[in-house]
Amino acid sequence: MLYQENHKKIQELSTTKTLPSRDFLHVKARGFFDTKHTILLDNQIYQHRIGYYVFTPFIPENGPSILVNRGFLATDSKTRRHLPDIPAPPEEVQILTGTLITPHKPFLLKDIPLTESSPILIQGVELQKLEKRLGYPLDSTVLWLDHSSRPYQDDLIRDWHFKMNQNEHRHKAYALQWFLLAAVLSLLALKVVIQNR
């Protein structure tokens, strides 16, 4: 519902800062990529292939820098020691269109320090850690580049529509599944206790 309401028209990124909800806003921004920094979000899967989401900071003409999810990059490396070749974004001014998403705090078992060199390998999108590493502030949302927005050829896969529409439902389905499993196990345990009396 929120996706459909906020995705109706394209708005200028710089005009959205005061809106109460920016999730799923369809925006455009003019600026340039920070080509010195590439960020890879590890452990991603697209159509049964493992790989990374490729993020690059984007510096708009108006407003703070924003992290842009440029797309999915598959890897054939089984050891994960060798990173795939990452297409570089253009250095000239670009006009991007995409959808704003607020990143959720990732569940990580331990704090993993960010690498000093580029690409920066991450396990979850933690904007405050990235701000410290990059040395400048970032917008509180991430711009997921439109799959139809190809200001340059990079062969990254941008197939977000399913992810944005179904993510919330998938999490609710998982929660329901675990709740039902817990209920069944509780009933079985209760039955065993009653039979042993």
Write structural notes for this entry:
The protein is α/β, with parallel strands linked by helices. The chain has helices spanning 2-6, 127-134, 161-195, and strands at 10-12, 26-33, 39-46, 49-60, 65-74, 94-101, 120-122, 138-145. Strand 4 and strand 5 (65-74) form a beta hairpin.
Secondary structure: elements and pairs:
Elements: H1 2-6, E1 10-12, E2 26-33, E3 39-46, E4 49-60, E5 65-74, E6 94-101, E7 120-122, H2 127-134, E8 138-145, H3 161-195
Parallel strand pairs: 1-2, 3-7, 5-8
Antiparallel strand pairs: 2-4, 2-6, 3-4, 4-5, 6-8
Low-confidence stretches: none
Mean pLDDT: 83
Order of helices and strands: HEEEEEEEHEH
What form results from the Cα inertia axes?
Answer: globular
Radius of gyration: 20 Å
Largest sheet: 5 strands, mixed, barrel
Helix content: 10-25%
Query: How many structural domains?
Result: 1
Summarize the structure.
Helix content is 24%, strand content 30%.
What keywords describe this structure?
5-stranded mixed β-barrel; 197 residues; alpha/beta; globular
